[in-house]
Amino acid sequence: MSEETSIVQGVEALPADRYIDRELSWLAFNQRVLELAEDATVPLLERANFLAIFASNLDEFFMVRVAGLKRRIVTGLAVPTNVGRAPTDVLADINRVAYELQLRHATCFKEQVQPKLAEAGIRIVEWSELDSADREILTNYYEHNIYPVLMPLAVDPAHPFPYISGRALNVSIRVFNPNTEKTEFARLKVPQMIPRYVRVDRRETEDDVRYIPLEALIANQLDGLFPGMQVLDHHVFRVTRNEDMEIEEDETENLIQALEKELLRRRFGPPIRLEISDDMDEATLDLLVREFDIDAEQVYTLPAPLDLSGLFALARIPRPDLKFAPHIPVTHPKFRTNSPSDKPDTFAAIARREVLVHHPYESFATSVQAFLEQAATDPDVLAIKQTLYRTSGDSPIVAALIKAAEAGKQVLALVEVKARFDEEANISWARKLEQAGVHVVYGMVGLKTHCKLVQVIRDEGDRLAHYCHIGTGNYNPKTSRIYEDFGLFTSSPDVGRDVTKLFNVLSGYAIETDYDRLLVAPLQLRQGLLDRIAREADNARAGLPSGIKLKANSMVDEAIIDALYVASQAGVPIEVWVRGICSIRAGVPGLSETIQVRSVLGRYLEHSRIYAFENAGSREIFIGSADLMHRNLDRRIEVLVQLTDREHLARIDRFFEFAFSDEVSSWRMLADGTWQRRIVNERGDLLPDLQDLVMNDRTQARSRRPR
């Protein structure tokens, strides 16, 4: 960040404690996920799913955020914190809060969700609860499906302590050797390719089923793994490793090779957290702590079962009575056809008027996917350019690009192979694109390409038309069903020129900062947002209409936050809608009295980014890929596009009205930085869910005639 863009006028008067610690704010977000699991009004299998999401989220938090913080402390590198506290103190707070949340998480499962599942006919049982017939069935299953793949590893002078992979479930075993009269230690990895919960019953009915945890089934068959030995005890543990990646791109000529080396290194990252069952003996614990070389505060003693991300499997049980009522995505009115079997002419629809699509309420398949599939087969289409951050190898998006290349069209795919935890998959299907004749570009040195862009060049006789899609989410049909995102389709010549310039930057050596309807990071977007926030403050001081509405996944950038504080002190009404990390403080007298902060969590992951400015009555609203974080504004290629259609502006306004209404369920930030959930009104009535309201709104729009 340059000195000019980092300075906000009036910032010197702001208090030093004006930021909420970003890591603790993330833990507060995951606590909100946990509160959904604790909510008795949420359908039961959805509660189990939120327990699994909490566990998966926390794993990634430790693998990336905590790992990065600890690595910097250990190596003596500067540790950026936005709260002015020692990094070691921040790390201690993280471990304390995370441990408290994990205990609460385990309690929620054991005391709330598991008993309710049993009442509903889904029972998770222990070996001791089974009769001889059940045990015979499971023993037979074990011998044929589990025993052959088990690999017990001894630990003794001839067998060093084995490598323990991150996030794998393990059983520690102590056995007594009658020949040597010594107690020995062994480790057994619970196979990850076998279902975590093994079904006891083989009946077809789903309304009365029993499951046993895989590790419990294995634990009751240990004698057969150690014949001639006496099994003394066994305990479950798992370790989380540092899986963050740092690639020195300026020191390598081949990004793919460097990335593949880093992926290999990731498997052997140092341990960050050790989770153990609360019945583990001291001797085993001492051995693990010594071998992993970790501190006592990194040990999390928890009741079994460990790793509740395994509940994802139970959440898929076909019991619609225990799940959210289904939402059926509708086709956007502009893309509707007379018959369901007809394919829409997306080019004709976009040429008539810009189209704003909202997923998953409106179908990805009949909009984005249909647009690309039509482009792949249309003989008048000359070229397709697309950025790809996260998708899947079997994706119809990838298939459409391959079909277009095979048809002789010019196809450019900018594949961001550094998308965290999707690196290996991205390399694989990017090579498939290359083999089909697609021009594949692997991002830019030093920058991640995170923007969501498609451009289609079509020969329409007297001109080359540019059809563009600019979105807030990935081109992934699977996640489009659970991630909330917006996308704009346009044939605007201004946007077409902007996107052409940007693709020249991405695939060539161009340096471009002159755009009409786009704000592009890292050279333009930050200052563009700061200028607009400052303009709202000036308008408020002049008595002109002012207001700022922001929706993002995360808000931690200090310069943006400071600008919002200054605007609030000028009297600008500010609404911040954030899903995850939020370092801004809301409603603090003298600092942020006009700032409201809301968070919405539910069946869909709120993923869209929206930036709206009142601008003295001439409103500006942008949507795009950028969150309010240093990495998005300074170290990524990000794009925001300005919405200009009055109908689209009104639609965004309505979206915010839902989120900030006192008659809609949400979390609101209090002045002390804590979050308060509001799910009932003053009369005690359950408040409606925002995502249900939006789905109903889109369903009603389906009956309106397109204009």
UniProtKB/TrEMBL annotation:
The keyword Metal-binding applies. It holds the Pfam family PP_kinase. Residues 602-632 form the PLD phosphodiesterase domain. SUPFAM superfamilies: Phospholipase D/nuclease (SSF56024), PHP14-like (SSF143724), PPK N-terminal domain-like (SSF140356). It comes from the Bacteria. Mg(2+) binds at R390, R420. The active site is at H450 (phosphohistidine intermediate). GO terms for molecular function: ATP binding; metal ion binding; polyphosphate kinase activity. An intermediate of this reaction is the autophosphorylated ppk in which a phosphate is covalently linked to a histidine residue through a N-P bond. Its cofactor is Mg(2+). It catalyses: [phosphate](n) + ATP = [phosphate](n+1) + ADP. ATP binds at N57, Y483, R579, H607. GO terms for cellular component: polyphosphate kinase complex. Gene3D superfamilies: Endonuclease Chain A, Polyphosphate kinase middle domain, Polyphosphate kinase N-terminal domain. Its EC number is 2.7.4.1. Catalyzes the reversible transfer of the terminal phosphate of ATP to form a long-chain polyphosphate (polyP). This is Polyphosphate kinase. The gene is ppk.
